[in-house]
Amino acid sequence: MDADVTDSAGTATEPDTESGRQPSTGAPGLAGEDTEAAAPPAGPNPKRHWLRWVALGTSVAILATAAAGWWFYRKLDGNITTDTSAAAELHTYEKERPTPVALDAQNILLIGSDSRSGDGNGKYGRDDGGSQRSDTTILLHLAADRKSATAMSLPRDLMVEIPSCARPDGTRSQAQFAQFNWAFEAGGAACTIRTVEKLTDIRVDHHMVVDFSGFTDMVNAVDGVEVCLDEPVKDVQALLELPAGRQTLDGEQALGFVRARHGIGDGSDTQRMDRQQRFLGALFKKVQSNGVLLNPARLYPVLDAATKSLTTDPGLNSLSDLYELARSMQSVPMEKVQFLTVPRQPYAQDPNRDELVQPAAKSLFEQLREDNPVSVSPDETDTQSQRNEEKSDDSVKNSGNGSDGGSGTPAPGSPSPAPTFQGTNAAVGMCG
């Protein structure tokens, strides 16, 4: 047997001193042929080393992003103030509240507080111990199919029945017939909700209260809102001075613009509400069309501004709740985001106050309560023409000369037209 072959299994042979090669420990090759020497152990693989660093770096980046996202979520979530006292008061009077009709629809009461207390609000007036009234109140109705949203403004000078409400100091106010914004001063959001429900017979599902600084921060977060003015405006009380023409208002200017009652238009609360509605429509349009909702870098400032000056009921007191609400509104076409004011006229006993116009107001409340559609028109003549047509139709039905044979019942398959009220929509904006 050759010297370079093992003489038994597992026994190594002596090295070939003449060739200097180590003998093979594997299977022998063909007879008479030497096997190749074993390859030396491989050193570190640079490619695998690089891949490990990439994987480690990616993991760290993912963890850092998740941690940052969690921190932002917790911060925004913690910004929101929960109004537990309102929830307790409403629970006490649950039996007298309206029964929900369209369960998938949502009615949200938006309250703009004129309180001067809190950070950043003192410059808008003297803080008299935290008292506040509702500077703006809007009942937002989201249709069950989320194909329309109707924001109905309630005049702060509207004369209404205000129930007895719990005050912050534990006492109770007296039931009274007074202007609407006294309800918020008497008993906060709960008293305002009960007053609205008594007035409209519409169940309020949620509420939000926003103060002055929250509004200005929201406008600044979207880089301002464009308006067009036919004439220059100067209102010392609203801290507002603007030139005529197209311009973009920052938060401070926007607040003065929606609050102004002097030096702009006829100084009436009616024009002020119309201006607020058009501005809110322009703000909504800016948020929807400016890529804010899909751009985290732009979305965060908006959410921060929206949450840190926001007080809500327990059903809307988390970022996830607000996100679901915002997401549900994304599907609403811009022209179907409608703004209007409840039909009203000067109060008979005091022209500086308002009263409802009937039966128009009752018709509007019924449409929203039943989740039926409404239409808006910027021209009062359009709504008046419709009311005249409705009266004409009624007289035809009563005389028995209608196409339905005088039964007063619409022909099968012919849907009733949506009643029209004076207002605007978000697609119009402030500059048409």
Description:
The chain has about 425 residues and is α/β, with parallel strands linked by helices. The protein contains ten helices and 17 strands. The protein has helices at about 45-80, 85-90, 180-200, 210-220, 250-260, 270-290, 295-310, 320-330, 360-370, 380-400; strands at about 80, 105-115, 135-140, 150-155, 160, 175-180, 205-210, 225-230, 235, 240, 245-250, 310, 335-340, 345, 350-355, 375, 420-425. α1 runs parallel beside α7 (about 295-310) and α4 packs antiparallel against α7. The radius of gyration is 35 Å and the shape is globular. The chain starts with about 45 loop residues before the first helix and ends in a 7-residue tail after the last strand. Residues about 1-15, about 25-35, about 120-130 and about 390-410 have low confidence and may be disordered.
Largest sheet: 9 strands, mixed
The assigned structural class equals alpha/beta
What fraction of residues sit in β-strands?
Answer: 15-25%
* Count of individual helical segments: 10
- Helix/strand order: HEHEEEEEHEHEEEEHHHEHEEEHEHE
Tally of extended strands?
A: 17
Order of strands across the biggest sheet? 1-12-7-2-3-4-13-17-16
Provide the helix percentage.
25-40%
Segments where pLDDT lies below 50 for 5+ residues?
Answer: 1-15, 23-33, 120-131, 388-410
Radius of gyration of CA atoms, rounded to a whole number: 35 Å
